[in-house]
Amino acid sequence: MITQTFIDDLICYQKQILKSDKKQMWLENRHYRNNFALESCDKKFSFRVFLRRSDDFIEDFSVGLVWLNASQYISITKPIILLRCQGPHDGKEEIGTNTHYSFHTHEITVEDIASRRYTKPSKRSSTTAFSSFQSALWYFVSRCGIIDVSKFDDFADVSQLSIDDFFEGGDYDA
Asked: Would 173 be classed as within a structural domain?
């Protein structure tokens, strides 16, 4: 039986990048994209990170963590999107009533897994933890425990971000 604590720990579990699909993000269908293969440092769990950013609207992006070997731990055959960080994008509800119109995260829940919503995490939260694609990468790398990111071009800038970059466009007391 999987618990919410197990899911939350899995997101934070220390991970290392094994390889990327491409050296840098590439443009396909009006979105820049790349994928990274990861594994937990103890080699128990395998993951994929996906990066997507609109060519037209730079604030429209998605950075996600997918658990690939869930079938070894629970009786399912599909990968599970554990966490997705997104910029503002169209939602189905009016502006101001939907988290999709602000920077937000989606997280998988035990209920999602029981309902077989493996790729549609239902826990949505607006956030001020990031306000751009670059600061979302910084947040994501930190939150997901991803180590040694500087050797990959798409993450190289993340390791160079300062505290000012993290709060770009936001207010904070230094």
From this structure: no
